[in-house]
Amino acid sequence: MIDKLSLDYKLDYDRLGYRLNSNFSYLFNLEETINKPYNYVFGYFEDNKLLGFIHIVLTVDEADLINIVVDSLYQHKKIGTKLIYYVIKRFDLKALTLEVRESNDAVKFYEHLGFEIKRTIPKYYGNESAYLMKKVI
Ligand SMILES: CC(C)(COP(=O)(O)OP(=O)(O)OC[C@H]1O[C@@H](n2cnc3c(N)ncnc32)[C@H](O)[C@@H]1OP(=O)(O)O)[C@@H](O)C(=O)NCCC(=O)NCCS
């Protein structure tokens, strides 16, 4: 089941987000994030356990994908795919854009879902460049 993430899941959200950034709970504080305009965080749940989440920022009929993460024990079960298609459908998105580290395996995941590399952003992550990727729906 996919649903908006509530503060009840803050600990699990922080635990999953730690995979993305060791300062995740500070940088993407759940309470602040879900109260920011145009920001949406949806969780993927099985038996009330949070297995993954997606955070997007809406811009009219497009969105920026800020974070997506799936519990490492539950990867390759299409949870990430379901989260992406859920937000596309829910907001009737015409495009979805993101930045990702060049070296991140997630680049393959995004390409599999039809995202294209639009350009490289040098030193976006300090010592590492990012790809700007976009999926037009
Ligand atoms: C990227 C991530 C969200 C993908 O979630 P997932 O639920 O495991 O992905 P899915 O099962 O929906 O994958 C769909 C397809 O994408 C491709 N794919 C997914 N992960 C991949 C990987 N690590 N390497 C290569 N291809 C991959 C595969 O083709 C996969 O299909 P298959 O398993 O049948 O071969 C997950 O691996 C994750 O949380 N990674 C760590 C956090 C992260 O890097 N997030 C992105 C930050 S920008």
Description:
- With 137 residues, this protein is of the alpha+beta class.
- It folds into two domains: 1-93, Aminopeptidase (3-Layer(aba) Sandwich); 95-137.
- Helix content is 27%, strand content 37%.
- The protein has five helices and seven strands, in the order E-H-H-H-E-E-E-H-E-H-E-E.
- It has helices spanning 10-17, 24-27, 30-35, 79-90, 106-112, and strands at residues 2-4, 39-46, 49-59, 62-70, 95-101, 116-121, 130-136.
- Strands 1-2-3-4-5-7-6 form a seven-stranded mixed sheet, with helices on both faces.
- Strand 6 and strand 7 (130-136) form a beta hairpin.
- The longest helix is centred in the middle third of the chain and has 12 residues, at 79-90.
- It starts with a strand and ends with a strand.
- Coenzyme A (COA) is lined by residues 19-20, 68-70, 75-81, 100, 104-106, 108-109, 112.
- Coenzyme A is lined by residues 19-20, 68-70, 75-81, 100, 104-106, 108-109, 112.
The radius of gyration computed from the alpha-carbon positions, rounded to a whole number of angstroms, is 14 Å
Q: Any idea how many domains?
A: 2
Total helices: the number is 5
For the record, the CATH architecture of the largest domain stands as: 3-Layer(aba) Sandwich
Task: Give the name of the CATH superfamily of the largest domain.
Answer: Gcn5-related N-acetyltransferase (GNAT)
Write the H/E string, N to C.
EHHHEEEHEHEE
Distance between the termini: 23 Å
Question: The biggest beta sheet, please?
Answer: 7 strands, mixed
Mean of residue pLDDT values? 96
Strand content: 35-45%
Helix- and strand-based class? alpha+beta
Indicate the CATH topology of the largest domain.
Aminopeptidase
- Number of β-strand runs: 7
- The unreliable regions are none
Question: Would you state the CATH class of the largest domain?
Answer: Alpha Beta
Bound heterogens, unique? coenzyme A
The outline comes out as: globular
